[in-house]
């Protein structure tokens, strides 16, 4: 799927694919190149201006949107050009092009020239001997095409001059420029990091090795395990970080980060690999913050949910995988939206007023059809479901890419046939706080001055959005987690570029590092406790109800529970089969640290009698006594 010019220099194979090792992308896709550095000869309209000529930029639903999917020239003639001002002398080594992102139009450039300049007035065309170089462009609109220059060109400005285009379309392009800044004054400063981490893209084998290295560095607080296998048989490895790895400790909440459910959204995968290195190093160096987090939380990191899809994207590389190559599992399933649609089941029950008599408002059961072998469920999804049911997770985040926003449930609109609609959960205020805790501590998400990634200005909404109000999607991991388990799950879209070049990873780590830590710390907000019987034994599957919030949770196997709540006073009621209900008021403060709220419940008279009857039924007794017990139970 990768097309290159036959006259191009040989490319070096690296972990991040067929990208020259000498010069990385300049940053049209990552927005490092700002809108003021992009110019064009003409434009069809503002939504198709030079600022939209960025590799992999996505269009809105309609072709007349303010944010469209390419630069498109105002005229179709060989005098058109798209220009990039590097703002300093740069060694240009290549160009990557795409056609226009559009559901309705077919526009792409089939050949082009490249010109360079130091003053934007006098231009020199790249040549092959005495003739102008004509680079072969695209054959369709989505697959990126890389052309390397036979000889690098040093200049400040570079222009792409289309010479031919699809005969039933127009001049439209999305572009990335490969180039190295020459020594001198820096006009665009690069964010650097002081963390000594492995900033590179890791193949599946390299990922396993890195996890093993971290485990050997911190054997007392880490454990590697797998939750299942991908369609092609690759194990889905996770690493646990805890002061007592391998065991659930009563009273200690379980947290998870997952990444890579869309295999081509690689940044999240690398961020989790960096996070596990960082936490190990900081723990060994005695960081109070990290030590407290490790001692008080059981953390699970699953860096690659879809390793098969990742392998497809990795094969062609960071700039050439396009927008969707590797997104789906090996058998063509979108893993993130492959969970059972429990929203419809719950909402139908609410409409028929079955709650709580015939159905509960939580732990909605998985329908039988979904569990059959013939259902279209990816092996990766089945592994995730089993993992989510096995461990009593409290809070989770799945890292995705291609945007800068945090989304929270519900992800499906309640109104039939509506593609966008606010659809809040009963815990909407909690979800909004959780989303804001990540977005507000990210270096870019809430920056009102930043450029939008594609079509949505999420900075206006504090970098967060209800999933259904962005676009409806049934069967999401977030909705399933909330409705089937105790875990509150959110999606973090951690960067505009799904598969950033290796040289961008240090900056992306700095963008997300604090957010990753702050969000983990939110697992300690709300109330926690243990539900005991009169003998001091924990009661599993007891229901924790919060007055005014129509979503309950359940206790874990040891009777312990964690209920995420915002600051305030809450009336909490505990119910368990065979026990009398118990209520109390619990207050949640503003400081990190869940309020302890334990309950001791007693058996009901009826359950005591049934227990006695069961005990006596196991041994021969006189008939009159049995009859008396029977009548007493009535």
UniProtKB/TrEMBL annotation:
One of its GO terms (biological process) is proteolysis. Residues 200-523 form the Peptidase M14 domain. Residues 21-180 form the F5/8 type C domain. SUPFAM superfamilies: Carboxypeptidase regulatory domain-like (SSF49464), Galactose-binding domain-like (SSF49785), Zn-dependent exopeptidases (SSF53187). Its main location: secreted. Keywords: Disulfide bond, Glycoprotein, Secreted, Signal. The keyword Metal-binding does not apply. GO terms for molecular function: metallocarboxypeptidase activity; zinc ion binding. It is found in: Secreted. GO terms for cellular component: extracellular region. InterPro entries: CarboxyPept-like_regulatory, CARBOXYPEPT_ZN_1, FA58C, Galactose-bd-like_sf, Peptidase_M14, Peptidase_M14_domain. Belongs to the peptidase M14 family. May be involved in cell-cell interactions. This is Inactive carboxypeptidase-like protein X2. It comes from Oncorhynchus kisutch. The lineage of its organism: Eukaryota, Metazoa, Chordata, Craniata, Vertebrata.
């Amino acid at each position: 799927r990768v097309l290159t010019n036959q006259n191009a220099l040989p490319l070096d194979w690296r972990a991040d694919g067929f990208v020259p090792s000498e010069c990385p992308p300049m940053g049209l896709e990552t927005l490092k190149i700002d809108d003021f550095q992009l110019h064009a000869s003409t434009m069809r309209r503002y939504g198709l201006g030079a600022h939209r000529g960025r590799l992999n930029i996505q269009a809105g639903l309609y072709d007349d949107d303010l944010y469209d999917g390419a630069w498109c020239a105002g005229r179709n003639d060989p005098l058109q050009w798209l220009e990039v001002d590097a703002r300093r002398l740069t060694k240009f080594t290549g160009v990557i092009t795409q056609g226009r992102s559009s559901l309705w139009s077919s526009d792409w450039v089939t050949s082009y020239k490249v010109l360079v300049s130091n003053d934007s007035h006098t231009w020199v065309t790249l040549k092959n001997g005495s003739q102008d170089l004509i680079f072969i462009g695209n054959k369709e609109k989505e697959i990126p095409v890389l052309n390397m220059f036979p000889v690098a060109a040093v200049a400040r400005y570079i222009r792409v001059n289309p010479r031919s285009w699809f005969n039933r379309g127009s001049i439209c392009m999305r572009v990335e420029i490969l180039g190295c800044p020459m020594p001198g004054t820096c006009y665009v400063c690069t964010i650097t990091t002081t963390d000594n981490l492995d900033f590179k893209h890791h193949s599946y084998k390299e990922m396993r090795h890195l996890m093993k290295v971290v485990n050997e560095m911190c054997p007392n607080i880490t454990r590697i395990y797998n939750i299942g296998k991908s369609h092609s048989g690759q194990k889905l490895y996770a690493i646990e970080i805890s002061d007592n790895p391998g065991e659930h400790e009563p009273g200690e909440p379980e947290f998870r980060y997952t990444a890579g459910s869309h295999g081509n959204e690689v940044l999240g995968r690398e961020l989790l690999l960096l996070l596990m290195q960082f936490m190990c190093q900081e723990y060994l160096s005695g960081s109070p913050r990290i030590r407290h987090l490790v001692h008080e939380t059981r953390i699970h990191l699953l860096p690659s949910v879809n390793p098969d899809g990742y392998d497809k994207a990795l094969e062609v590389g960071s700039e050439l995988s396009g927008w969707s190559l590797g997104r789906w599992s090996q058998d063509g399933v979108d893993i993130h939206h492959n969970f059972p649609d429990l929203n419809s089941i719950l909402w139908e029950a609410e409409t028929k007023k079955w709650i709580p008599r015939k159905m509960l408002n939580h732990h909605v059961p998985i329908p039988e059809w979904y569990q059959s072998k013939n259902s279209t469920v990816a092996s990766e999804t089945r592994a995730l479901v089993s993992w989510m049911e096995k461990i009593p997770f409290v809070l989770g985040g799945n890292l995705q890419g291609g945007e800068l926003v945090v989304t929270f449930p519900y992800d499906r609109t309640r109104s039939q046939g509506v593609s966008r609609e606010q659809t809040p959960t009963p815990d909407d205020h909690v979800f909004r706080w959780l989303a804001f805790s990540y977005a507000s501590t990210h270096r870019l998400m809430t920056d009102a001055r930043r450029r939008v990634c594609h079509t949505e200005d999420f900075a206006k909404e504090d970098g967060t959005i209800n999933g259904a109000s962005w676009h409806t999607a049934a069967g999401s991991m977030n909705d399933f987690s909330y409705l089937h388990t105790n875990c509150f799950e959110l999606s973090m879209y951690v960067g505009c570029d799904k598969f950033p070049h290796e040289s961008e990873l240090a900056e992306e780590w700095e963008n997300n590092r604090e957010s990753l830590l702050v969000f983990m710390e939110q697992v300690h907000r709300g109330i926690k406790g243990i539900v005991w019987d009169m003998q001091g034994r924990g009661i599993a599957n007891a229901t924790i109800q919060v007055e005014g919030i129509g979503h309950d949770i359940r206790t874990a196997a040891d009777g312990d529970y964690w209920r995420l709540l915002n600051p305030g006073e809450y009336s909490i009621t505990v119910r368990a089969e065979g026990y009398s209900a118990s209520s109390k008021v619990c207050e949640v403060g503003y400081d990190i640290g869940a309020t302890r709220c334990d309950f001791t419940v007693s058996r009901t008279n009826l359950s005591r009698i049934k227990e006695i009857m069961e005990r006596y039924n196991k041994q021969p007794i006189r008939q009159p006594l049995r009859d008396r017990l029977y009548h007493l139970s009535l």
